[in-house]
Amino acid sequence: MALQWFRVPKDIVFGENALEYLSTLEGKRATLVTGGSSMKRFGFLDEAKAQLEKAGMEVSIVDGVEPNPSVETVLRGGKEMAEFNPDWIIAIGGGSALDAAKIMWVFYEYPDSKFEELVAGKFPQLRKKAKFIAIPSTSGTASEITAFSVITDTENHIKYPLVSYEITPDIALLDPALPAKMPAHITANTGMDVMTHAIEALVSTNATSYTDPMAVESIKLVYDNLPLAYEKADHMEARNNMHNASTLAGMAFTNSSLGLVHSLAHKIGGELGITHGLANAVLLPYIVEYNKKATDKFSYLEKTLGKSDLIESLKELNKKVGIPTSLKEITEVDMSEEKFNEVLDRMSKNAFEDPCTLTNPRQSSVEDVKEIYKAAYYGVTASNI
């Protein structure tokens, strides 16, 4: 049996006013990395800067990280950091800001690194110049806890998942005040992304006795808290629990990997522009139905949660938070039958070849993937695939 690992950040700081932890850091300089305007608009960027200045640090800011961070952006950030020479790199914002900051860190410490080497999994040893803190503004991607980053080659229109334990943050800092500013539909989409992470981690072929308890606890927290966080944006207990659920799911899946839900969501997102969390949410019940033949963990989960039918309970949860039950009902992009069928064959092949397919509990095929897409599009059962 091959050796396995369980690796997570050294420290996880969580709870209300967690941003104040920044004032306890030791160092001379810190660089904050953020995305668009939301962290500025809601005052969190200024608050983080103020806390770092309380610690006696000089602070620089690298901003403008786009929703799909590009190679150019991470190279720019690495260069700006090299000019400032920070002891701490602190990413604050959504998953894009966190992902970008991880790779900026590499180019700061190793300016001569080649992006192609990172794509091939060849990462240098970090922490020679700086340590890394991740402060998520959404309860969803779990980038604050993972060894993953997704960077886009805009010239060739390819998204590259980069993976190395070197880019796992040193500290994950979870303050529920940040996601409390999210609009309801983002709360829903990111919350169901958490659910998908947790369920796929639980049934992954790489799941272990270390990852399973975290996945199950995350699932419980989402069931109990997502509707409340969706209905009451400033319900701090629900927000705190959803933040913890996201991080627990991240701890599970970064060590066990994922499955077909993510494979299919990655490709339909790339082809039709559907938001990642929304795609996961709609696909999840259909792929649970498809995978049920291959694992008894869904039955175990039903017993643990007291749910008589996991698939129906997931559909009900989606409805509670305003998520449609089929792909054709999605309105954020053009989901016409013509558009869907136009990309179906290519999308199915690419989804089958996605790395997440490797750890799905049931062995699939391009034809199976195509049938799952069709079941989820039309809202019909996947049990006969």
TrEMBL record:
Residues 187-377 form the Fe-containing alcohol dehydrogenase-like C-terminal domain. The keyword Mitochondrion does not apply. Keywords: Oxidoreductase, Plasmid. It comes from the Bacteria. GO terms for molecular function: alcohol dehydrogenase (NAD+) activity; metal ion binding. PROSITE patterns: ADH_IRON_1, ADH_IRON_2. Residues 9-176 form the Alcohol dehydrogenase iron-type/glycerol dehydrogenase GldA domain. Gene3D superfamilies: 3.40.50.1970, Dehydroquinate synthase-like - alpha domain. InterPro entries: ADH_Fe/GldA, ADH_Fe_C, ADH_Fe_CS, Alcohol_dehydrogenase_Fe, NADPH_BDH. The keyword Cytoplasm does not apply. This is Iron-containing alcohol dehydrogenase.
